[in-house]
């Protein structure tokens, strides 16, 4: 029997956000794109906001629309961002 989704712990969710952020950072660096350049491509006007999302500072993380735009900007599949579930 599968576990209820309500049983997913906050630490599991945080680990997911960390994996996503790490995958974005790795792909961005592999593409030789700066945080500033990627933020501007996404329409994010604050480099601090982008950096906070990529580094999970102040409980910030990318939303689904931003993840989709990141995949397009870096020319990668969304699966590379999400990783193994």
Describe the protein's architecture and organization.
With 85 residues, the chain is mainly α. The chain has a single domain, classed as 434 Repressor (Amino-terminal Domain). The protein is built from five helices and no strands. The radius of gyration is 14 Å and the shape is globular.
Question: What descriptive keywords fit this protein?
Answer:
single chain, 85 residues, mainly alpha, 434 Repressor (Amino-terminal Domain), 5 helices, globular
SSE topology sketch:
Blueprint: H1 10-30, H2 35-42, H3 47-54, H4 64-73, H5 78-82
Q: What's this entry about, in short?
A:
By secondary structure, the chain is mostly helical.
Largest sheet: none
Q: What percent of residues are in strands?
A: under 5%
CATH topology: 434 Repressor (Amino-terminal Domain)
The CATH homologous superfamily is termed lambda repressor-like DNA-binding domains
Shape-level CATH architecture: Orthogonal Bundle
Terminus-to-terminus distance: 18 Å
Spell the H/E element sequence.
HHHHH
In total, the number of domains comes to 1
Query: What is the number of beta strands?
Result: 0
- By helix and strand content, what is the structural category? mainly alpha
What does the radius of gyration come to?
A: 14 Å
CATH class: Mainly Alpha
- State the shape: globular
Measured as a percent range, the helix fraction is 55-70%
Unreliable sequence segments = none
DSSP helix count? 5
Mean pLDDT: 92
Oligomeric organization of the protein chains: single chain
């Amino acid at each position: 029997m599968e576990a209820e989704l309500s049983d997913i712990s906050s630490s599991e969710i945080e680990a997911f956000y960390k994996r996503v952020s790490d995958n974005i950072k790795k792909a961005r660096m592999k593409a030789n794109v700066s945080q500033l350049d990627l933020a501007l491509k996404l329409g994010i006007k604050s480099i601090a906001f982008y950096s906070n999302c990529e580094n999970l500072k102040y409980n910030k993380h990318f939303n689904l629309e931003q993840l989709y735009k990141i995949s397009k900007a870096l020319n990668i599949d969304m699966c590379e961002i999400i990783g193994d579930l």
